[in-house]
Amino acid sequence: MPRGPRTRNLTFYLLKAEILELEQAISKPDELTQYDLGERVPYAAKLYVKSPFESAPWWVTFFRQAVPDLEQLFNANSSAAILLRASGRIFAVTFGYGRNLLELDAFERGFGLRVALNALDPDTLRSVDARTFEELTVVTRSQTSRATGLENFRISESQDILKAVTGKPYDLMIGTRITGADAAKVTYAPNLTGLAEKCSQLLSVYGSEYYKQRFGFIDQLRVVSDPARIHELDEEIVRRLKSGELGNLHLAPPEVVDLEDIESFVFDRLGEEDFAELDIQAYLDLNSDRDSISLHELKTRKVGAQYGGAEAPHFRWKLYDCIVTEVPSESRLFVLSGGTWYEVDATFAGQVTHDTELRLGDSNLLPAAQGNENERQYNDRVSRERGYHLLDRKLVTPTGGRSPIEFCDLMTENRQLVHVKRRSRSSTLSHLFSQGVVSAEVFLRDSGFRQALASNLSNAGLNAAARNIPMGRPSPPEWEVVFGIIGGESEGWPGSLPFFSQLNFKNNAEHLENVGYRVSLVNVSVG
Question: For residue 461, what are the contacts with CB-CB under 8 A and spacing of at least 6?
Fold first, then answer.
């Protein structure tokens, strides 16, 4: 039986509407070989090709001492992109490392994601990339062994932004598989003469609002498209960097990366110093003339990743695309991530703050912290002054667990499990909320953990605290999980917390309440 045409994965980018000429989208056209396809295809198109660059793998030199006659080996990478007009827009179809041939701001962000969410059967997902917004932006990629629905990827519809999905389209005329992010990667049997027709098909799917039936939650965070608003928000970023008033501004890679493969990060044109972490303060420390910081600077300076064994860093992103921050403005909240500004739905943002306010705890439960007091010193002092049980640094390993956990920092006779953190970064708050959830869950389900905890407390001379630990399954309504935040701004509390910290607290609180615990949030002032 004859085989049908072979399927391939083709990657489509939609260029921004202001790109009027094909060459405008090419980063360094003079370094490329160009082919005007002219009358060879039934559409206007140019092919851009970068000749392969050969380099020896690092491990050749690594083994050369022991094997001097090791043959000389080379790797070669090729890149190509065809730019074409279809349905009044310009598209780029890339091959190999062809994306690197395009200007970094030439294409529509999220084009492929929108196409995929409109085109795919939502019960056929195989992979999902998401960004969870906190001070430490968490980028995740989840894959399943077989097709399934979004609910099996543990995506928080209120806290995560979908960045990429892979699934099977309803209409197999589109393809047998589609992956959507900034680009639409479509698996189908392509032919060169039909490339413009495929682009037109994808553009039509892009314009649909079918996604709202199953993925409408993505509109809780809307892309800001008004140029005047974007300019205003960008200027606020520049002002913060010049003044050093960073607030919640930080850096994070704008896409999923294999951190195990990255040895360090580097900023181009700022010397050769590299950094283990991608840190905005490192950039400011290297930049001796902060007055020179501008939007142009942020969008032209690149951030590189130094991979193990590579001779030079790979400059993958614009600095601007790595900035993550929140900017409140006129009762609205704007979030910058991955080079895109999002507006948080006002009703959604107000509901999150309202839900946080409903869980505010007794302000007298925890006294003010002293200015120079760290968390450990604060917990020690409060336990003495208030008679609370000090469980800080009393670590216990859950049954079958690999590492010990801290049950809580302080425990009151009223069965309040108090977790305390000083507010410095909302990533710290994320850890605080996660710690409370993990310990409460283990306490509820793991009898071995409860026994070990009681034993450890008794051995430490904390007999009164040990007597509060039940050997049988605890009754969650009798226990309250308290999150104490040192240094939260009293004015506007808890609205003064970063929005995504509030959202993180709300989601974790709801999780604990669903199993019966009481949950509260307490602001610890600094005297």
Answer: none
Tokens at residue 348, please? 């959604």
pLDDT in tens, 196-212: 999 999 999 999 999 98
N residues, the chain? 527
- Which structure tokens are listed for 53? 């660059």
Q: Maximum distance among all alpha carbons in the chain?
A: 88
Q: Smallest Cα–Cα separation from 330: which of 232, 416, 238? A: 232
What are the contacts of 270-274 at 24+ separation with CB within 8 A? 270/301, 274/306, 274/313
Structure-block tokens of residue 504 = 């993180």
d(CA 338, CA 317): 10
Q: What confidence tens digit (pLDDT) does each residue in 465-499 have?
A: 999 999 999 999 999 999 999 986 666 788 878 78
Q: Counting beta carbons within 10 angstroms of the beta carbon of residue 258, is it exposed (0 to 12), middle (13 to 18) or buried (19 or more)?
A: exposed
Cis-peptide into 494, omega within 30 deg: yes
Strands 314-318 and 302-307: antiparallel
Q: Which of 527, 526, 520 is nearest to 362 (CA)?
A: 520
Reported pTM? 0.65
